[in-house]
Amino acid sequence: MTVYQASATAPVNIATLKYWGKRDKTLNLPTNSSISVTLSQDDLRTLTTASCSADFEQDQLWLNGALESLSSERTQACLKDLRTLRKGVEHKDASLPKLSEYKLHIVSENNFPTAAGLASSAAGFAALVFSIAKLYQLPQDLSEISKIARKGSGSACRSLFGGYVAWEMGESPDGEDSKAVEVAPLEHWPNMKALILVVSDDKKDVPSTSGMQSTVATSDLFNHRINELVPQRFEEMKSAILKKDFPTFAELTMKDSNSFHAVCLDSFPPIFYLNDTSKKIIKLIHKINEIEGKTIVAYTYDAGPNAVLYYEAENEDKILSGLKPYFENIQGFKQPQTVTSFDFKSFIPEITGVSKIIATKIGEGPKETSISLINESGLPK
Ligand code: PMV
C-alpha cells in the first residue's frame, strides 16, 4: 500500500485588533479587518500529519487520540478547496499521482489542553490546511492558503504567518480578497512577550459564531466600531508595529479589547465574556502602567475570561513584580528578580480564579516537520 504523507506544526495567534462580526457566515467573511501576534510554537502549537492513499476508504480525522467527525461544513469547505487546487497541479503534470481523488487520513495533536479556552481552532485549522497543502505540493503562497483556513475558522487565517499579522477583510462577495498578510516578521520586533493567565470559569461561553451573529443583529454601538474605530485603529496599529512603538501598540490593544467586550455587552441579550477575575486583572495592569509612568504592558481578552498580556522582554521583571502578590503560587509563574515597593494588596486585596500561567513570546508561522503521527498503513501511531 502506498501512503503519501506530510506533517506540519502551526501556531496560535491572539488578536490585538479583534475580529468580531461576519458579513458572510458560510465563507467566514468579517465585518472588519483585524491584527494579531503569532505566539511561539514552543509553548502552544498543533502538530498535524495529513496522509492519503488509493486504499483509504473514507476521510478520517483523529484529534488528540480520538476519532472526530470531518463532516462539519467548515472542514468540508477546506478539503474541497484544497482538492480543487491539487487537481490544478495534476492537470499541469499528468505524471503526478491523483492525490485529489484519494481519501485523507489526518492525525492532529495539540501540545496544550484544548479545554483551556485557548485559541485552539486557529492553530488546528492552520495546521490542517498547511499540512494538506504540503502533501498536495501546492504552489500557492501563504495568503492564498490563508483564505482556505479562513473558511475553517476566521481567526485561523492569521495563523499562516509568524510575527505580526493582519487579516484584510476585503470587499469581494466571494471572499477572494479576504486574506492574511504579514505586517512585520518576528525578527522585526522579536522581544515581544506574552503571558497567558488562564482563568477558570464554570459557565459555558456563547460560542464565537453565535455571539458575533447576535452582536451584528442587535448592538447599536457595533456600527460605530466597525465603521469608525477599527478602520482607524487598523492603520494606527500597523504603523505602531512598524515603528516598534510599544505604548501606542499597547494602548490600541487594550482599547480594542474593551471595545469588543463593550459591543458584546451592548448585544441584546448581552454577552459576558469577562468575569470578576478578568476585571481585576484589567485594573491591576492599569495600575502597573500608572506606577511606571508609561505603558509597559497591555491586556487583551478573546471570547472568554483568560487574560493575555503583551510586553517587551526588558520590562518583564517590572510586570512580574506587579503580578507576584497575587499569582506567585500559581503553576507557571516565574519569580521576578526584584520586589516592588508598591503595596498592591492595599489597592486590590486579592485576585482568585487564575488556575495556570503560560509564559510565552512571539513566534514563527507554520513549519513542515519530519515528525509523523501516522504509520505505514495510514493509521495513528
Ligand atoms: O475565528 P473564531 O470564530 O474563533 O473567532 C475569533 C474571535 C476572537 O478570538 C474573539 C477575536 C479574534 O480576532 O481572534
Automatic annotation (TrEMBL):
Name of the protein in question: Diphosphomevalonate decarboxylase
Organism whose genome encodes this protein: Candida tenuis (strain ATCC 10573 / BCRC 21748 / CBS 615 / JCM 9827 / NBRC 10315 / NRRL Y-1498 / VKM Y-70)
Domain Mvd1 C-terminal: 194-367
Pathway: Isoprenoid biosynthesis; isopentenyl diphosphate biosynthesis via mevalonate pathway; isopentenyl diphosphate from (R)-mevalonate: step 3/3
EC supergroup of this enzyme: lyase
GO cellular component terms attached to this protein's record: cytosol
Family in the record: Belongs to the diphosphomevalonate decarboxylase family.
NCBIfam families: mevDPdecarb (TIGR01240)
EC number assigned by the record: 4.1.1.33
